[in-house]
Amino acid sequence: MELLQYDQLNQLCLNVINLSASFYRKYNWYYNLLYLTGCRPSEPLNLDSWSFVSPSLIRLNPLKNNNPRFFDPGLLPGVFVESIASYDPLLTPSNLSALNTAFKLLNTPGKVYTASDFAGMYVFRYRYVRYLLIQGMNMEEIKSHMGWHSVSMAESYATKPLFRH
After folding, report:
1. Where along the chain do its domains lie?
2. Which residues contact 128 (CB under 8 A, 6 or more apart)?
3. Residue ranges of E strands in 17-160
4. Residue numbers in the chain where pLDDT is lower than 50
5. How far is residue 132 from each of residues 22, 65, 116, 118, 136, measured CA to CA in Å?
6. What pLDDT is recorded for position 1?
7. pLDDT tens for residues 115-128?
């Protein structure tokens, strides 16, 4: 078992994005969005959760009754922003299984686990929260940015060891 550091986790995510551009082009925006936002893997598949607040602000109403999150549309994949604006979904919840399968194939170094579970595409979420920490956010700021009600969620994503088997 290999304990993953942030740089390895970041490289794993970037490799998935880069490989998807060649082998799963229609999914590339999706992996980019997970990388840029740290949203749950199912959230980009439900356009009802996304809306424009203004031309310069997109709102995500996360799952699990978490607080809303807000994004600058200029920082998100353009094709996804256009999809929100036109309410024309690029993918639907029925595509999640195919996205998981593609992720497993693109993640060539092997599966990532927490001490008790397979991390799957949540590696993008772990990476994003750790990125926020490296950028100087404290746990309270990360909690607010991610829309969580509890600092313990921020602590978990920021500090939980991840392993590659």
Report:
1. 2-164
2. 34, 35, 36, 37, 38
3. 50-54, 57-60, 69-71, 112-113
4. none
5. 29, 22, 24, 23, 7
6. 81
7. 989 999 999 999 99
Of 1.10.443.10, 3.20.20.80, 3.40.190.10, 3.40.640.10, which CATH number belongs to 2-164? 1.10.443.10
- Percent of the chain topping pLDDT 70: 100
Q: b/e for 15-34, b at 16 or more Cβ within 10 A?
A: ebbebbeeebeebbbbbbbb
Q: How does pLDDT run across 20-48, given as a tens digit for each residue?
A: 999 999 999 999 999 999 999 999 999 99
Q: How far is CA 4 from CA 11, 32, 120, 160, in A?
A: 11, 21, 14, 11
Give the burial class of 36: count Cβ atoms within 10 A of its Cβ; 0-12 exposed, 13-18 middle, 19 or more buried.
Answer: middle
